[in-house]
Amino acid sequence: MGLWDVLFGRSKPAQPDLDRLFGLPSAAIALQAAAGLSPTGAGAVCFASIEGGAFARIRQEVRALLGADSGRDSGTVEFSEDGYGYSWLLSRRSPDELPSLVNDLHAVNTTLRDSGFGPQLLCSLITFRTPGRHPLALVYLYKRGTFYPFAPLPGRKRDNPLELQVRAALQDDLTIEPDLGRWFPLWGAPGL
What we know:
The chain contains five helices and eight strands. The chain has helices at residues 3-7, 24-35, 52-67, 98-117, 160-170, and strands at 38-48, 77-81, 86-92, 121-129, 135-141, 146-150, 152-153, 157-158.
């Protein structure tokens, strides 16, 4: 950061550290112990839409990459677009394969970043279920380098007490986003 940045109050944004995703398997153990949450086996990557041939090439690369695992059916990878025009890649695995799911998401993110689409990366999420079968997502914000919990309820409501409980349970395992205003709702995100 330069002198002018200090004088004008500008700060450098946190650099995305894709390796932070590898903290999710140990965080899942803490979630199970603290709140009874268990992984569903679903994880997603959200990115700003990429147009034309570049997107087709990335899509093929990702399908080939994730389908390359021995015995993995490439049908467990789905692409979609939400109502806001953002692209989503959903990867599904068995709930007991959380480390492999994290590897999938990391590989997708790395492929996008290495292909020059790093600025289009928005977030990744891994979904969990409460004992009452309500969903919860742990969301990684690329531009902030932080995680936050998102617990949707029917009627576009949120389970704020559960989100705060998860924040407290994971504060030693993950870098939790301190600004609650940045805990954006991801209504209708694939995998939730």
